Amino acid sequence: MxxxxxxxIVAIAQTGSISLAAERSYISQPALSSSVSKLEMELxxxxxxxxxxxxYPTEIGEAVIKKAMEAIGLLEDIRSIxxxxxxxxxxxxxxxxxxxxxxxxxxxxxxxxxxxxxxxNVLMKVGESNNNLRDIAAGKADFxxxxxxxxxxxxxxxxxxxxxxDQLVLMVSRESSLAARSSVTLAEAMAQPLVxxxxxxxxxxxxxxxxxKYGTFHAAYRLDSFPMLEKVIxxxxxxAFVPKFMSEYFVNRxxxxxxDISDTRLDISIVLAWSKRHHLSxxxxxxxxxxxxxxxxxxxxxxxxxxx
Length: 308
Known about the structure:
GO terms for molecular function: DNA binding; DNA-binding transcription factor activity. Belongs to the LysR transcriptional regulatory family. By secondary structure, this protein is of the alpha/beta class. It is built from twelve helices and twelve strands. The strands form three sheets. Strands 3, 4, 5, 6, 7, 10, 11 and 12 form an eight-stranded mixed β-sheet that branches.
């Protein structure tokens, strides 16, 4: 039995896919399958059921994978002790981030983190929070920085840690008839043609789900390009609901104006999220700590308590 075989079976269990597990393990799919087959032969048991819907652990496989995760956790602790003694962190982080976060908090976070830990590789995927949530639950990302607007079934398998609370405001063009005002009612805001940030072709973005609680709205555009989102707002084609902490970012564009919602609080939370099955490495904890330190600069309370 080899250590890498333990990592391989845990990766398959987390992703439910041989191909995704191979990608995460940086080896070919045949090599991963061979590794698992050899381990099954050595143990004399079947670890996984292979179906058209994916790969799932057998009953005995679940018990073995649980022990493998415990062993990996101990190995990571040993590695962390060694790295702390040399003050040099290495490895990779797969991070999923909401675009509003990537264009604000993450800019300084990544610069600071890389200055401190130049030997750590960071792969950051920018995407809508609901899509990122599914990637984290599937094991495609180590953890994420998300905008939480409501509860999701996937959260039962995740650890959620709030960074700060915020609320949505409406962004309109300086050419809009609403631009001279400081606030609008929610009904007025939802009557505007809206642009929503979406990744992939799903239409269940977090902002959509929150707005549906208050009635119907017209999504004129669903875009996965942040610069294009800014453009359609500035051209007075659409308005957009965004977190209030992003107001300064948009105001600096000069052609976009933030408006408060006068009669309703559209509360959201900016959170860290990771799978309960994922053992946080020292480098991931370091990255989370750096993110938290920059969140505190937004003059919101960093609660640091798990929501669930």
